[in-house]
Amino acid sequence: PDRRPSPGVLEYKNVMRPPRFTHRGNGRFKVKNYLDFTDLFTLCTVEYEFTADGVTVQKGMVELPSLAPHESAEFDLSVSLPFGHSFVCFTLRLKEDTPWAKKGYEVGFDQLEILPFEPKEQPMVSNKLHVDTDDDQIKISGENFFYTYSKRTGTFTQMKRGEKNLFTKPMEYNIWRAPTDNDRKVRVIWEKAGYDRTIFRPYETSLKLDDGAVTINVKIGAGALWLQNSLEFVASYTIDGKGDLQIHMDVARDPIFPYLPRFGVRLFLQQEEHEKVTYLGYGPGGSYQDFRCAQRFGCYTANVADYEPFIFPQENNSHWGAEWLVLGSFRVVAQKEPFSFNASCYSQEQLDKATHNYKLKPEDCTILCLDAKMSGIGSGSCGPQLAEKYQVNENEFSFDWLLQFLI
Predict the structure, then answer these.
(1) Is 384 exposed, middle or buried (0-12, 13-18, 19+ CB in 10 A)?
(2) Considering only CA atoms, which of 402, 400, 150, 403 is closest in space to residue 250?
(3) Is the dihedral of CA 353, 358, 361, 367 positive or negative?
(4) What are phi and psi of 195, to 5 degrees?
């Protein structure tokens, strides 16, 4: 209504880009012109940019004289990529003014992966730790940190660095999201399965001290009060001498239940210290596994208060394919596979309940949703339901994260 292009329009624009670039290997690329009447390179210039872990390594112009409608051409473009997850991005811009846009307007882009993501080893630091445990809690302290773990919830209730408690409320497991317009049909199925009212019940908790580190293992069942468990998982938390926290989870979903909206954890962080997030992943706008054609992989910084102001509040502004993020003094690193995250000043409960965006009020904390899995957006409001390959429908999956603190 404010005449600003919506995320869906920007996605559609790049889906309909006139060329397609493909990587043929060994520094060779192919481009095809999908226009019906126009020579691509009389209309547009092509810029290229090689990046490694979000850092520009080389950029320049692709010089091709002409490309007739529906024709293809190959060209060489080699670069020495010294490190990391690498891409090349081809961006088309208008050569001259047209009736619909000015010279230099971005017509579209293709970003191609050259070298894949490879996890980086994060060695644990041995140091003296002090551990106290009783029927309800496990308290772990070391140099400059103090953590409290609840056996009743299976999560950490506080994490103090120095004298500062980073949490405003205990950590939570999380499978729900504020339904989108496209979730309007499946949300009925999700609510019937109790996903919006799931309770996480720890069954068994064990503690292990080994070589200057502490490991907490907990078996958890998850389900609504009146239903059988939809999920069972084992979470393993290892704290080293520096206070770094390794998280590993093995998750089993009962296949009788529908696919999940998401699976991950929520952290409620002190707002004044966590107002900006920097990350390596798809951005700068929101991205999901099936909704990222308008986003590039790179390193970005955003304000937590940034929010896509849909008239009807809903899930938005998640970032897919993240390899790490820094939020104030808090850092998360992917250990095996990239993750999704959302840093917001609005809770999913508030987004779910509000009927108009003017009714939203910022929370008194920064809410960080870390998702090992997040179902795609789809087109269920006016089209088919979400394709299976974009659903969180695995019967079993596992993931690993590293949580670090920069203070």
Answers:
(1) exposed
(2) 400
(3) positive
(4) -65, -30
Count of residues for the chain? Answer: 407
Question: What token pair was written down for 275?
Answer: 């107002």
Reference 379, options 387, 367, 368; nearest CA is 387
For the chain, 407 residues long, give each residue's pLDDT as a single digit of tens.
Answer: 788 999 999 999 999 999 999 999 889 999 999 999 999 999 999 999 999 999 999 999 998 889 999 999 999 998 887 788 999 999 999 999 999 999 999 999 999 999 999 988 777 788 889 999 999 999 999 989 999 999 999 999 999 998 888 999 999 999 999 999 999 999 999 999 999 999 999 999 999 998 789 999 999 999 999 899 999 999 999 999 999 999 999 999 999 999 999 999 999 999 887 889 999 999 999 999 999 999 999 999 999 988 888 999 999 999 999 999 999 888 999 999 999 999 999 999 999 999 999 999 999 999 999 999 999 999 999 989 999 999 999 999 999 999 998 87
* 3-class DSSP assignment, residue 388: helix
Between the alpha carbon of residue 292 and those of residues 7, 76, 286, the distances in Å are 10, 27, 8
Question: Tokens representing 283?
Answer: 């951005």
116: nearest Cα among 398, 337, 293: 337
Q: Does the pTM exceed 0.85?
A: yes
